[in-house]
Write a structure and sequence with these properties.
Order of helices and strands: EHEHHEHEEEHEHEHEHEHHHHEHEEEHEE
Number of strands: 16
Shape: globular
Number of domains: 2
Number of helices: 14
Strand order of the largest sheet: 3-2-1-4-7-8
Radius of gyration: 22 Å
Distance between the termini: 38 Å
Structural class: alpha/beta
CATH class of the largest domain: Alpha Beta
Strand content: 5-15%
Helix content: 40-55%
């Protein structure tokens, strides 16, 4: 089969590699450097399994800048382009997704080609697209991936959900299931609108869990209690579970901040308290961290890594950036150590690639996820990383 993947971020590239083991896959992107790297079997993103599979596996994968080359005669066009949240309209910016839909209509035979949306979208988006462009062969299939472990999560999926019940939808689910290494993968078929809701509610629940343990940690910190003991005692209840419970500076990354806000927007005219509280809690956590640092009255605050978690090179919408903005409001000098950045400045702040110089210049060092290379400056460290894991 010919499959086109539009967008080569974590979702698109992991799916392209997964499916190119048994199909001819074209990965479409707009960035020449990424296309060249993929064709040279070099990963443009940090992900252990993506890097390993590109180097060692025999993949029928070609990256291209030419949408006609990618889309023409494709059996499936899988859309993985970003949908950033627009704070003004309270709505995902789905323009990139619609652009691909229009290109498919332009070059494809819609009796043969099915459009699969993997980008995160508002509830009701697919039905809106069906009416707007008068097309039928389009459905939503949410992804449930972690940054840095995207291909692993596609090889061992928690579940496969497809927002359609047609033969083409079932065939697509089988493509994903057959490419996985996990036995007995649960596959659910439902309507598109319910599938869209699954994605937003699942991510908002994860944000809720992050917020819960962060607020537990804030309470313990303010009252002089041992956060670790409390979390371990709480999480031994099997209904709660000892996982996804390590305090942090807040939830961040590409998905959770925007997905929670989109779900809240979808709740317009629907009674709710909790969804709004989850969104607000994240900002409260950042304000608390910034206040704790400001109260120390440091001359220089060092930011150790902008990335959200270890094993990732993504710092888009990371929680630490929200704290940086609040510290800047207090006129505190800030320096950044981020070895993945090959620049001298980030948002008008000095970036150092010399760790020893960074340690020496910093009075307080903010660390979202601790690393052993900081052991000799523990007295300068402020972190809420209780369990030394993501």
């Amino acid at each position: 089969m010919k499959i086109a993947l539009c967008g080569t971020g974590y979702v698109g590239l992991s799916l392209a590699i997964l499916l190119s083991q048994r199909n001819n896959v074209y990965a479409l992107d707009i960035i020449p450097q990424k296309v060249e790297m993929i064709n040279n079997r070099i990963s443009p993103i940090k992900d252990e399994y993506i890097e390993k599979y590109l180097k060692k596996k025999n993949l029928n994968l070609r990256a291209t800048l030419d949408y006609k080359e990618a889309l023409t005669d494709a059996d499936y066009v899988i859309v993985c382009t970003p949908t950033n949240y627009n704070e003004v309209t309270n709505y995902f910016d789905t323009s990139n997704v619609e652009d691909i839909i229009k290109k498919v209509i332009e070059v494809c035979d819609l009796k043969k080609t099915s459009i699969v949306i993997k980008s995160t979208i508002p509830v009701g988006f697919i039905e809106k697209m069906k009416k707007k462009y008068r097309i039928k062969g389009i459905f939503f299939s949410p992804e449930f991936l972690r940054e840095g472990k995207a291909l692993y999560d596609n090889l061992y999926p928690s579940r496969i959900i497809v927002g359609d019940k047609t033969k083409k939808a079932k065939k697509f689910a089988k493509l994903l299931k057959d490419a996985s290494l996990k036995k007995d993968v649960k596959v659910l078929f439902m309507n598109n609108t319910e599938a869209e809701a699954v994605k937003l509610f699942a991510n908002t629940y994860l944000a809720l869990r992050v917020s819960y343990f962060n607020e537990l940690d804030t309470y313990a910190e303010e009252k002089g209690l041992n956060t670790k003991d409390i979390i371990e005692g709480v999480c031994l209840d099997p209904r709660i579970g000892n996982y996804y419970n390590n305090p942090s500076f807040g939830y961040g990354g590409y998905c959770l901040p925007k997905d929670t806000k989109q779900l809240l927007a979808n709740f317009k005219d629907v009674p709710q308290n909790m969804i709004g509280a989850i969104v607000k809690s994240n900002d409260t956590r950042k304000e608390h961290i910034a206040k704790k640092i400001s109260n120390k009255k440091p001359n220089v605050v060092g930011i150790y890594r902008l990335t959200m978690k270890s094993g990732s090179d993504n710092y888009r919408s990371s929680a630490i950036q929200g704290i940086i903005e609040k510290l800047k409001d207090n006129n505190i000098k800030i320096i950044i150590y981020e070895p993945s950045l090959n620049v001298k400045e980030f948002n008008n702040l000095e970036v150092l690639n010399d760790l020893n110089a960074f340690k020496s210049l910093s009075d307080v060092i903010l660390v979202n996820r601790y690393n052993q290379e900081l052991n000799n400056v523990r007295h300068k460290i402020y972190t809420r990383d209780i369990f030394s894991r993501d």
